[in-house]
Every structure is written in structure tokens, then in C-alpha cells.
Amino acid sequence: MALQIATGALVECGDCPIRHRAVCARCETDELSTLEHMKYYRGYEAGQTIVWSGDRMDFVASVVSGIATLTQTMEDGRRQMVGLLLPSDFVGRPGRNTAAYDVTATTDVVMCCFRKKPFEDMMRKTPHIAERLLEMTLDELDAAREWMLLLGRKTAREKIASLIAIIARRDASLHLRPVGGNLAVTLPLTREEMADYLGLTLETVSRQISALKRDGVISLEGKRQVTIPDFDRLVEEAGDDNDGGMLA
Amino acid sequence: MALQIATGALVECGDCPIRHRAVCARCETDELSTLEHMKYYRGYEAGQTIVWSGDRMDFVASVVSGIATLTQTMEDGRRQMVGLLLPSDFVGRPGRNTAAYDVTATTDVVMCCFRKKPFEDMMRKTPHIAERLLEMTLDELDAAREWMLLLGRKTAREKIASLIAIIARRDASLHLRPVGGNLAVTLPLTREEMADYLGLTLETVSRQISALKRDGVISLEGKRQVTIPDFDRLVEEAGDDNDGGMLA
DNA sequence: CGCTGGCTTGAATCAAATCAAGATAAGTGG
DNA sequence: CCACTTATCTTGATTTGATTCAAGCCAGCG
């Protein structure tokens, strides 16, 4: 039962919190007002499945708030998360009408949706949208490839450190804080979801988080609140080329 | 020393073997003739590095013939292949000027190159190119995500079976043969390269190939020539949802 | 209260890595 | 043509990092 939650009074594209990062980022005022008329908001509760893999999908959308995940499942139940969708991320593929992955709301989520057909037409007429979508897709491809290195070659400890570092970076870029000395982040995922993302079991995730805490790389307030006393140390533990992309 | 190999008499875009799959696939005759004047061929010998990660890259290109790989390397030498480039695949990212990965020729390779700046200008003027590039990038993203499932959740045996199945599929789609009963493929990679692709060691790759052979899933002529008596059996061993994408 | 879901921790097991030796094949130069 | 080198691959023995199986903790909640 697709219970919808309040989508609030969001209407003006000009005031949209994801205005400058979403697929519409490059649009001019007139283009924006066209989108304004096409769009509709939809809310999903934490835990709710937004789309099932294989289902017909007649819309595309941007995540406005909240966090969603993309996961693949094998017949015997093994699961691998293949994407983490944060505000401004795009869902759905123009030119395909069934979903390739399960999309699940991890927190309450609000999405800015467009019916697929009109959106595709608009895209053809509006290079700004296609351009931005290409750029976003290339970024996602890079992220996926970085994740391939993590999944294929990193140890459990490095995987956990990498995940925390990535969440911290995204968090910082969203709130425009520098990732410097002492900083705190909230893990948006359960241990099991982290395991699905990292290609581990939830027990291993738990153990490695405990180990990083024991070794003073992180400290914990409760189970979700992480403080990072020394970000460089964390990045080192992640095994990354430590420049690690202060992206534009 | 960037020794170039003969690039042959390829000149006419109309006769190009990758005409219908490459980034230029959707171009009209006039657009094609513009590209015709911009393009230049370049050859690389097997084993040669085409670009180093981090290097300035002032061109983009399509693979015309041969096979190249994209790999990431950690400081301590651990390597993960993040892409396998076959004829018609695109190399380089418009809007970025340094390479994100090492690109290496696995066999002798011929590439159809464009200097980046003119190509970007052309892209802005020619929606057909941007459109096709978006489509290709979305396909690559899907492939990367499929690979994430493999890297994160599959066993060594499943990984090997998956790799062989994928190579067989691509091979068939390139030569327009159906992937039916009995078919043969040549592995385009050494055991070590397979290991880098699959997130394994070369010893494990060797052992699992032997095991698949012992169990009659495949048979070998030499080290590279693989015959697949029953493709469905192979797909089953790969742990895939056996429909497995007879892509358009 | 007494659950229930999320998490932690321990002990045993196992799949793949590592370490090590040799086999096979393809040059290369005397 | 043959000895020598080198690259690639196979196979075996051992080790190890992560999984599996199992128990119990903790916070929130009906």
C-alpha cells in the first residue's frame, strides 16, 4: 500500500533546495517554468520500496530530500547495493521503461517526478537538461568504478573507512563545510545496509566499526553518530590516494 | 616511446566497422562528413599504455579494433580493472582534461581520435552525438553496476562463469551469431588480467577455470580457446537471472 | 513488563589468498 | 638446431580474513 507522506509546500523551482545540483541545474528561467508545470511531488516513507526491479516505470525523478538505495538481488537472496541516492540524484533512465534495480527509501523521501514521455520530449528540445544529465551520469559512472575498486580489492576495514569517508565528504559538500579536522556525521544506513553496500556481512561491518573505534580512528555516540577526530587518518585507513577529490 | 602501428587504409566513415554502434552512430551524412575531417587514427601495440591515470588527456576516441582495459591501481599495487573496452566503446570524458584511469592496449588497438576541444564544440552543436553518448554512458553505468554485484557477492566460480558468459555474449552480438548451443570464444585476457577484472588472484582464476573444465561446463583448446557445450549451463553456473539480456 | 529489531561479540568453519614449485610454450641468440 | 631465457599458466600446501552459526545485549515501544 503506497502510503504517501506530506510533501510540504514545495512548489517554486526557484526556491528548490536541489536547484543547483539536480538535472535541472542548467535550465534558464523559461525552461524552468516549463518543468514547473510538468513536475509533481511524491513522498515515500522510510523502508518503503519506490520501484521494484523489472517493474514498468513511467516516470523519472530527482530526490529532493531523504536517502534512497539502488539494490540488485540474486535468486538465492544475496544482495548488493549498487547506488546510494542522495538529494539531487536522478532516478530512472530515459529511453527504457522498466526499472533495472530495486529502489528503496531508507529515510522518508520526497521526489520531484516527471512522467517519462513528456520528460523525454522536453529533453530532446532542451539541451541544457540532456547536458546536465550526461554530466551526472558520467559522475555516477566514476563513482561506480571507484566502488568497483572497493568491492574487488579492499579489506573489510578499508571498506568501512572508505564508506565513512565518503559519507563525510558528501555531507560536507552538501552543507558546504570543509572536511578538515574534527567532524561528525550520522550514518544514514543500518549495519545490514552498509553490509549490502560494501559486499560484507553485517557481523563483519559491526566488528570493523568496533575495531576502528577501538583504534581511535572514529568514535561513536550511540550506533549512528560518528565523530572523526582526524580525517586524514581515516582516509589513510581507507587505502585511498589521499587527495580523494575535493570535487568542484 | 609511443610506437605507432599501421592504421591501415581506414578513412571513410561510411565504411567504418563501428559505424552503427559508436558515438557517431546517430549522425546524419553531413554531420558525419564534419567528423570525417576532424578525426585521425592512432594505433597502439599490445601491452602499450594508451593513457596514464592523472595524465593530461587532450583527445577523446572510439576503439575501432582491438581490446583495451581501464584499470585503477592502489599505492601498494593492488589493481582493479573497471572497464573492458571493445570496438565501438568510447574513451575519455568531455568536460574533464585528465584521465581518471590507466588505459592499456591488451591486443593491438586502433583508435579513432578527436581532439577534445573541437569534439566538445561539435557535441554542443550536434545533439545526435550528445544523445548517443548519453545512451552509451547509461549502458556503461548498467554494466558497471552488474559488475558491482559480481565483485561484491559472487563466488570465484561464479565470477569466472560470468566472465566467460559475458565475453561469449559480446562476441556473438559483434558477429551477429545467436548464443545458442555449442559455441567457441577466445579469451582476450591473460589469467592475471582476468584476476584484475574479477577481483581475484591469478591462481584462483586458474583453479576455477580448471574446475569448470573438469566439470564439463567448458572445454579448452590451449589456454585461450574456450568451447561452451551448453550455454544455459554456463549461465546457471554464473548465478545470473538467466534471461541475461539479449540486448537490442 | 516482555517483546522486537538492530547491534555486538565469540567460536568454528571455509573460501580464497599466499607461498612455493614446477610445467608449458614461445622466443632469442649463439 | 639447440641451449637458455622469459612469460604464462597450473597445481599443491598452508595460512588467513571473512563468513557462518550462535548467544546475548540494548533501546524503544506496545
Task: List strands and helices in order, with pairings.
The structure is a homodimer of 248-residue chains.
Chain A: H1 29-38, E1 40-44, E2 49-51, E3 59-65, E4 68-73, E5 79-85, E6 90-91, E7 102-105, E8 109-115, H2 116-125, H3 127-153, H4 156-175, E9 183-186, H5 191-198, H6 202-214, E10 219-221, E11 225-228, H7 231-237
Helix pairs in contact in A: 2-3, 4-6, 4-7, 5-6
Chain B binds a DNA duplex (30 and 30 nucleotides) through α6.
What are the defining features of this structure?
homodimer, 248 residues, Arc Repressor Mutant, subunit A, 2 domains, four-stranded antiparallel beta sheet, 11 strands, 38% helix, globular, transcription regulation (chains A, B)
Tell me about this structure.
The structure is a homodimer of 248-residue chains. Chain A folds into two domains: 13-148, Jelly Rolls (Sandwich), CATH 2.60.120.10; 154-237, Winged helix-like DNA-binding domain superfamily/Winged helix DNA-binding domain (Arc Repressor Mutant, subunit A). The radius of gyration of chain A is 19 Å and the shape is globular. Chain A is built from seven helices and eleven strands. In chain A, helix 2 packs across helix 3 (127-153), helix 4 packs across helix 6 and helix 5 crosses helix 6 (202-214). The relative contact order of chain A is 0.12. Chain A is α+β, with helices and mostly antiparallel strands. Helix content of chain A is 38%, strand content 21%. Chain A has helices at 29-38, 116-125, 127-153, 156-175, 191-198, 202-214, 231-237; strands at 40-44, 49-51, 59-65, 68-73, 79-85, 90-91, 102-105, 109-115, 183-186, 219-221, 225-228. In chain A, a hairpin with a 3-residue loop joins strand 10 (219-221) and strand 11 (225-228). Chain A starts with 28 loop residues before the first helix and ends in an 11-residue tail after the last helix. The A-B interface holds A 70, 72, 74-76, 78-80, 82-83, 93-95, 100-101, 124, 127, 130-131, 133-135, 137-138, 140-142, 144-149, 151-153, 198-199, 239, 241 and B 70, 72, 74-76, 78-80, 82-83, 93-95, 100-101, 124, 127, 130-131, 133-135, 137-138, 140-142, 144-149, 151-153, 198-199, 239, 241.
